[in-house]
Here is the input.
Amino acid sequence: MAKLVSSKIGEKPADLDEVLEALGVEMGWQEKISLLQYMEGVEAVYHAVSGRIILRKVPQRATI
Here is the structure.
């Protein structure tokens, strides 16, 4: 599930609830937190005003 959600995040920040809704998945807060722990290359921020979790891809650093 973590890879599927990660694949739906583009260049712009995305709302976790909107991504899950588009996939037809409902989760409670604890499940969402557990899901975030398995998502590699994704940064999550809790937006206190809206009560939403905002996701964005972390830019990959070039290795020499």
Observations:
- The chain has a mean pLDDT of 90.
- The CA atoms of residues 16 and 53 lie 6 Å apart.
